[in-house]
Amino acid sequence: MAKDGWTEGTDNSAETSGDLVDEPSGVQLTYRPQLADTRVGQQVRDRVKRTKSVLRGVLLVLGVGFWLITIDVVSTGLLLFVVLWMWGYPRLHVAYIQRIIGWQVSTARPCLRPGSPATATTARWSRSGGYRETAHHFVLLSRDPNIMWLEVVPKRGVHEAEDLDRLRAILDQNTTRV
């Protein structure tokens, strides 16, 4: 039964957990995810993990070694395929991720709408493995060893210059730089 706009049996009180940030101290961001944002997130993830760069280096050394031993048309074609794959796969992966998140952003609106059903997410700070700041982005990384989740927050999304410092302070308070 509704009484003065409240529904009985529903706890509408705010949580006071250490994982949540109060509204007044929060920073509101408005931005549209772009391909470059996703690319920066993947690059930061790869630098933090380092596994991918090691595997790519080993594969390239083995490919060049095989090509030097057996210089012929097949080994040259195979080496070119490996090089093109190592160069093109990250770009294809970023484009795929952008297609996945692209449907969540309305083309009629110039920005993400916080709280819309398609884009609203809640993550606990305790699940964060840290963040890395780049020249134009903050990249929040998950705690799992494979960094399966990351969130890219473009600095262009802040409205005022002091919001950027507040966002940095919130991140430093709740997670660590990596």
Oligomeric status: single chain
Largest sheet: 3 strands, antiparallel
What does the radius of gyration come to? Answer: 22 Å
Order of secondary-structure elements = EEHHHEEEH
Number of strand elements: 5
Calculate the mean pLDDT score and round it. 77
Supply database-style keywords:
178 residues; alpha+beta; three-stranded antiparallel beta sheet; two-stranded antiparallel ribbon; 5 strands; elongated; disordered N terminus
Can you give a write-up of this model?
Helix 1 packs across helix 3 (73-102) and helix 2 packs antiparallel against helix 3 (73-102). The longest helix is centred in the middle third of the chain and has 30 residues, at 73-102. With 178 residues, the chain is of the alpha+beta class. Residues 1-24 and 108-117 have low confidence and may be disordered. A 3-stranded antiparallel β-sheet has the order 3-4-5, with helices on one face. It is elongated and about 65 Å long. The protein has 4 helices and 5 strands, in the order ββαααβββα. It has helices at 35-49, 51-69, 73-102, 161-174; strands at residues 2-3, 6-7, 128-133, 137-142, 150-154. 44% of the residues lie in helices and 12% in strands.
Brief account:
This protein is of the alpha+beta class and 178 residues long. The protein has 4 helices and 5 strands.
Could you give the topology of this structure?
Layout: E1 2-3, E2 6-7, H1 35-49, H2 51-69, H3 73-102, E3 128-133, E4 137-142, E5 150-154, H4 161-174
Antiparallel strand pairs: 1-2, 3-4, 4-5
Helix pairs in contact: 1-3, 2-3
